[in-house]
Design goal:
- This is Gfo/Idh/MocA family oxidoreductase.
- Pfam families: GFO_IDH_MocA, GFO_IDH_MocA_C3.
- The protein has 376 residues and is of the alpha/beta class.
- Strands 16-15-14-13-7-12-11-8-17 form a nine-stranded mixed β-sheet. The protein has a six-stranded parallel β-sheet with strand order 3-2-1-4-5-6, with helices on both faces.
- Helix 6 crosses helix 8.
- The chain is globular, with a radius of gyration of 20 Å.
- The protein starts with 7 loop residues before the first strand and ends in a 5-residue tail after the last strand.
- Bound molecules: alpha-L-sorbopyranose.
- The site of alpha-L-sorbopyranose has 4 residues, from loops.
- Alpha-L-sorbopyranose binds next to loops.
Amino acid sequence: MSGSRAPLGVAVLGTAFMGRAHSAAWRNVGAVFDDVPAVAMRVLCGADPARTERAARSLGWQEASTDWRAVLERDDIDVVDICTPGHLHAEMAIAALEAGKHVLIEKPLALDLEQAERMVAAAERASGASMVGFNYRRVPALALARELIAAGRIGRVRSIRAAYLQDWLADPAAPMTWRLRAETAGSGALGDLGSHVVDQIRALTGSAVVGVRGALRTFEPERRGSDGPERVTVDDAAWALLDLDGGATASLEVSRVAVGRKNALQLEVHGTDGALAFDLERLNELTVTQGRDGWPARLLVTEAEHPHLSGWWPPGHALGWDSTFVMQAAELLRAIERGTPPSPSFADGLAVQRVLDAIERSAAVDGARIGLPGHD
Ligand code: SOE
C-alpha cells in the first residue's frame, strides 16, 4: 500500500515446511497486492541456531533468532506468525496476544480442546488481530464454490463427500516425526488433514456440525526413531459421518497412507438442483453441474472477477498451492489496516477442534454418535 506509514514488522516462528511456505508469502504479498500495508520481514525464529541462520538468509529475513520470547518483547514486531509443531501453539499464541501482537497460527489451532478454549479466551481479551491458517479458504475455486452455494445455485445441500488424501507415510520405513506423536501433534491425519476438511465443510455450507460418528486407524503402529523403533501414537487415517445443522450429511475421509494421492483435498457438494466438485491437485478448476439433468462443466477459475484473483495474473495464468499463503497474509494485513477481525478466527479453529475431538471420542466407542455442544 502506498503511503509513508512504517511497515508492519513480521516474525515467523518455525523454520520447517510451514515456516518456509509462510516466509515466501510474506516476501511476495506486497508484490502481488497493492492494497495491503507494507511489511518488513524482521526475524525468523527456530530451535536450531545454524539451521535458523541458514533458513533466515535464504528466505529473506533480516535476522535469525532462537529466543521466541525475546522476539515477543520487541517493539518493532507487530505480527507473529506461528508455524511450529502443535504442542507449542497455545503457549506461543497466548504469549504473543498478551504482548499485544497480531497473531497468525497454523492449523490445527491446538493440541486439544482445553488449549483451544484458552487460546480463544486470550484472543477475545487481546488488542491484536488473530487468525488461524486454514489457507484453503483462499483457493479461488473453493471461494467461488462457497459463493455459488450461498446464492442457491445448486439448491439445498443434501450431502458432501470430502476427502484429503496424501501418501507420504505409506512406506512402513518412513521415519518417526513429531507429526506421529500425540504429545507434539495432538492427532495424526485427523488433525493435520481433517482440520482442513472440517473447516471447508463449515465454510462451504455455512452450517455447523451438530453430531459425528468416527473411526480411526493406525496401520503402522511402529516407526523407525533415532534410538530404534518407536510407537506411533496417532492415527494414519480417519473416517467420519458429520450431521450438519442445515440437515445435510457429510462424509469425511483423511489419510496420509493413501498410495497414489499426493495432496488430494477432494470436495463434492450435492444439492437438490446441482453439484460442485473440486480437487486440490487441480486447484484452478471447479466442476459445476447446474440443474438435476445438467452436464458437469469444468470451469477455469482464473478470471479477475473470481474471488481473491484481482491482484494476480491474466486469465488462464494458473495459481499454485503456495499462492494460498500469499492471499492468507493479504487477508490478515487488510484486517489489521481496517481494524476488523480477520477470518477464519480462533473461534473457527475452536469449532473445528470440537469436531475433531468428537470424532476421536466416537472412534473410542466404536463409532457411536457424539453430539456437539448444544446438540448432545
Ligand atoms: C502435511 O500433511 C501438510 O503439510 C499439512 O500439514 C498442510 O496443512 C497441508 O496443506 C499440506 O500437507
